[in-house]
Amino acid sequence: MTSTSLDELRQSLAGEVIGPEDAAYDAARRCYNALVDRRPAVIARCAGANDVAAAFEFARAEELEVAVRGGGHNPAGHCVADGVLVIDLSLLRKVEADGAARIARSGGGATWLDFDTATQAFGLVTPGGVVGSTGVAGLTFGGGIGHLTAQYGLTCDSLVGAEVVTPDGTVVRASSDENEELLWGLRGGGGNFGVVTRLDFRLYPLERVVGGALTYSGEGIGEGLRRFRELVASAPRELSCQAVLSVDESVAPMLGVYPCYTGSNGDPEELRALRTAPGLVDDGIGARTFLEQQLLFDSPYGENRQYWKGHFVRELPDELLDDLVERLVVLGRAPGGILIESLHGAPKDADPASGALGFRQAAFNVSAMATWQDAVHDEVHIQWARDTAAAIEPWSVSGGYANYMQADEPLERVRAAFGDDAFERLRALKSKYDPGNVLRRNQNIPPA
Ligand SMILES: Cc1cc2nc3c(=O)[nH]c(=O)nc-3n(C[C@H](O)[C@H](O)[C@H](O)COP(=O)(O)OP(=O)(O)OC[C@H]3O[C@@H](n4cnc5c(N)ncnc54)[C@H](O)[C@@H]3O)c2cc1C
Looking at residue 327, what DSSP letter applies? Predict the structure, then answer.
């Protein structure tokens, strides 16, 4: 690719073009996962669907592979690769909420902080992710689990429409009235079918929650985990809950439990057992705004190396819980964390045929999230995540969560996340919208 062709691309886009010589290049190629350090040939910051079509055309003419960037959070680093053209959507961050129709229209590059800020201005929400800098589109296309999952379901269950630019430059709309099969595929099938410049979501009224964090240490961790398990087994629809196992500065295990209650009781009965459990060292539960709840998990961008691996499981037996706690200390240093997301409540209500993903019947998503800073520790942390995932595997159902997968997952794990029938249906959809597999830098669904 010559500097003349780069200039031509600059002239054909309303947005920005960033090449390796530009001052903005290093910041623009950075992702959430510091393990990913790649040098694309060019980054096309698209200002709309026409720009996306022009970027696809340029990539074709220059024989460049394509990567697509939303919030840059995917731990596999699919949004950037050496020598590719990156279609970067970070100029498309506008979110418009229609309070009367209870619909939000989100740009393809919006983050959850953009989304929540716009919708909370009307006292409305959609169940999204728990970290503000995560991309709305990327998270939605893999499912979407967060603080409102029990109440309103997976994020993709609230996706009602999208504008998609396919690799041949065609703009396609997906909704229940138009290209319904494409909407089905976007609900779990990832960024396989096109670049999405707009997403429409259903909204629900909600401004305040009872939430925060409960922290347990020492012997109390096992009991805290069991009470968390019992709480979500009774499936209260007004209460989502996640748990995180990690270690403190002295590498002693710690448990954080993060409920989000949206019922009318200011002191929810359901939380009593958790709040009186032995080993509770900090009770941070209280009334807060939804935007405050959304700050609980905020984490630095691009600073830590990450390798994640996990399984959806049908149950959390004592044996597994005890094993997970023991695994926190095997490295003799902080390994990262183990995230346990409950899928009780509304995900089970949705019609399984409404979206491609195949994990809504699982009880929990359990993920080993290795986190470290120094490259000399790459091998031990990656191995820790793999070993921990192997310990979870005997209880696995429905494969792994595509949103947390690394790039080294075999095709069979991607297939298992959908089930054979849905996977074949996705492959047919892929053949229709991206027969050349231009969009292959993702949890890939090969064309049929
Ligand atoms: C700190 C952190 C917190 C997270 N929290 C949650 C959470 O609470 N719940 C949850 O379910 N997941 C969560 N995730 C996982 C996250 O949902 C996925 O990694 C998701 O892929 C990130 O999307 P992104 O746009 O930020 O990432 P990117 O890396 O930019 O994009 C990932 C892929 O998504 C596709 N994509 C993104 N935008 C578009 C678009 N507009 N059109 C077409 N394809 C697109 C592309 O294939 C792209 O390669 C989290 C991840 C991190 C690192």
Answer: H
**Per-residue DSSP letter, 262:** -
Backbone angles phi, psi at 111, to 5 degrees: -105, 170
What pTM does this model have? 0.97
- Report the alpha-carbon distance of residue 344 to residue 211 in Å, rounded: 17
- The residues near 10 (Cβ < 8 Å, ≥ 6 apart) are 17
Q: Which residues contact 259 (CB under 8 A, 6 or more apart)?
A: 210, 211, 212, 214, 231, 239, 240, 241, 271, 274, 285
Q: Output the six-digit token pair for 313.
A: 């499981």
Spatial distance between the Cα atoms of 406 and 302, rounded to a whole number of angstroms? 16
Top mutation candidate among 403, 405, 440, 444 for ligand 1, by most atoms within 8 Å of CB: 403
The per-residue pLDDT for range 249-304, each reduced to its tens digit, is 999 999 999 999 999 999 999 999 999 999 999 999 999 999 999 999 988 999 99
Q: State the average pLDDT over residues 82-94.
A: 98
Q: C-alpha angle 11/17/23, rounded to 5°?
A: 130
Contact 440, 78 (CB under 8 A): no
Instruction: Please state, in angstroms and rounded to a whole number, the distance separating the CA atoms of residues 347 and 187.
Output: 13
Distance from C-alpha of 397 to C-alpha of 316, rounded to nearest angstrom: 12
Other beta carbons within 10 Å of 257: 25
Two structure tokens written together for 289: 């705004």
Amino acid at 330: V
Question: Are 431 and 447 a contacting pair, CB within 8 Å?
Answer: yes
Helix (H) or strand (E) segment spanning residue 110: none
Instruction: Tell me which residues have their CB closer than 6 angstroms to ligand 1.
Output: 32, 68-75, 78-79, 89, 108, 129-131, 134-135, 137-139, 141-146, 190-191, 195-196, 299, 403-404, 441-442
In this predicted model, what pLDDT tens digit does every residue of 239-252 receive, in sequence order?
999 999 999 999 99
